[in-house]
Amino acid sequence: MKLRRYILIVIKKAKLSQYFIPLLAIFCFIVLTLVYIFYNPKPQAVETSAQSQAYVALIFEDAGMDEQEIQKLLEINLPFDVAIIPFLPFSNKIALMCSKNNKEVLMHLSMEPEDQNTVWLTPRSIMNNTPDDEVEKVFKDAMLNLPHSKGFSIHLGTLVCTNEKIVSHLVNLAKANNMIIVDSTSSPRSLFPKIGKQKGIDVIPHDVILDSKNELKPIQDKFKLLFNKAKKKGFAVGIGHLGQEGGLTTIEAFKEVLKDAQRENIKFVFVSDIAKLIKQTD
Q1: Does residue 253 sit within a domain?
Q2: Is this structure's pTM higher than 0.85?
Q3: Any transmembrane segments, and where (predicted)?
Q4: pLDDT of 146-155, one tens digit each?
């Protein structure tokens, strides 16, 4: 009897295993499928690596008075432009430092503003009544003072930029010397874009002024605004200032937002590269 009972148990187990193993396999397959569907992390709609690249050019204006600020700025190993006011104590030295560190130099030409406030005018500023021959002499001397300049931008200048004669002369000089022009006046009355177009030279506008107060957080927010503008149209130009307007604080903000730039696929380029991109989109 014992032997018979044992045989029956073996037979029952054999039948059970015949159905149990396939059922177990089906059950495991269903569980794994459900786990994959509901718990497997989905790729985000826009991965950082898949974002289209946007280009940002940064211009640091008002260089020429403080060598230490420039040394701090040049520690950042990325492309950017330094707009140097000519004929200041460290103008020539800073231009050479920038070239040695593979940064792009712009002549930041001082010009008369509309409000007649001459406090921030510098030696050999172009005034609204400056004759053509003197404008040309200032321009060419500035080129000698700031070797390897890729172009020029405007320091103050809201009055001069409405003077058709002087603007035309400056545009001609830039074109003759294969230079770019950055209209940094923020004046809606500026004639540089119009006359530049007439003469076949692109005048580059800026998108964001990064600083006006020496405070870190607002400047960081302006950098983020600049990055957003670049992502919308493909490229953007930001202007920061050395000295009282921003100086070391703006440099620090630049360093702080580098991780954001990398995450958002922002590539820093020279403003001359932006000029090429503008030509491609025209």
Answers
A1: yes
A2: no
A3: 20-39
A4: 999 999 999 9
